[in-house]
Task: structure prediction
Amino acid sequence: MKIKYIFPIFFAALALMTSCNEEQSITLLDEIQVSSSYVSIPVAGGSTSITVTAKDSWTAEKVTTDKNKVEWLTISSASGNAGEATLTFTAPAAIDGRNAEVLIKSGGKTQRVNIIQGLSKISPAKVSEVNAGPDGKTFQVTGVCTSIVNTDYGNWYLKDNTGSLYIYGTLDAKGATRNFKSLNLEVGDEVTVEGPKSTYQGTAQLVNVMVIKINKSLVKVDSVKNASLPIEGGEFTAYLTCKGQGVSVDIPTDAQSWLAISSIKSAGTKTVVKFKAAANTGGDRNTKLIFKTTDGKKDYTTETSLSQKGAIVKATIAEFLAAAVGDTQYRLSGIITKIDNNTDGRLYIRDFSGETYVYKIQDFATKGLKVSDIITIVGKRAAYNGVAQVGGAVLESVIPVTSVTIAEFLTKADDPNKYYMVSGNITNIATGNYGNLDISDGTNTLYVYGCYPGYGATGTARQGLITSKGIKVGDKLTVIGPKGSYNSVPQVNGGLYFSHESSN
Result:
């Protein structure tokens, strides 16, 4: 099936020129005016000028991205004074068509000037070339549809032998949006698309692509049974339609130790493949199963996913940070040190071994959590821009921590299950190894029996905080712990370090 792009580049350029002229007449501003909001530079290189009229001083700047610095375009001046001035745009010869946008600002208002040099030449590219290419450039790429995320706008993944690419929006045969189903595109189909490249949160994507060609796959997954298996393991079944010469199955290497094919049965174009999964003694795991066939000349593939629940892995934050990104569920406990968002629960937690960012806690707004509370959460090892974080976190338990003065703490009843946060200036350090010390508010003194690196520390992990942090007499120390007593003298039992301020 072939679907033609009904808006050729030439007519798109003309449309852009028209829209720019219309915009100029509609957005005529008193503060800043330009003689033209559309600038065309010859492909062979050269300069084009416009007149800028402003009531106040003005600035001109190129719109750039990490992938597109627009280094090819030179602006004669980055700023000017009130009155009329000439602004010249210069570019060297271009091999391929390119465009840019310049913002001219004055008096709190902005005029946008569109710069175009030549018409873009679209040539076939590999996924790796698209991922490495500049934002704004239009690419044509061919690959297999591996997953469909949204069937309204047409968001899906395309993969070739060089990598995977996200398609954000797919136009139908008439160039309209939100009609993806009319294309009849399915997982496993080989597709050729054209569209401009952009980058979202560090990930490359093609936006609102036109489908040039769809080569229907000769094998597809009609349905599956038990796509999410329990910890105990069991049988997973895939029901296929195959119009090629038999079906073969690829199980990824990392899944071959726990997943095996138990049977393959075919009748006409229908094939049923059954898999046997072993019991899972680790964390959550998943894999992609690839089914292949051939017509004797060309190979066709499709795939499906299988997941299996696993045990929740109890880990220190240091162990969590060292783990690979994946679906394994981790149980983490620590003190909330900072809350970035009070609505959805973007925050930091710290235990004795380290600190990590938690990207949202389910139903956070109803939990009433605050900085200093000790929480236990379950979530996945995730990452954003290469920085580790907890994804999909669920709150399991909380130990509320009440902030009190030393005087208030001294009046509390001994209770190992109630935690308080208290601050004071260190007046004496009895032993530096475990952090036994006295803090004072100037009137009252409180003994802290142990100042440990953080929540969860046991054995030798409790030692060494005073030395490692360079804490000394005179510093202001904030600790968290329950109220206790020894020989009728009140104390913080097993204080957990929260923060300190140096006295010099």
Confidence is low (pLDDT under 50) at residues 1-27. The first strand starts at residue 32 and ends at 34.
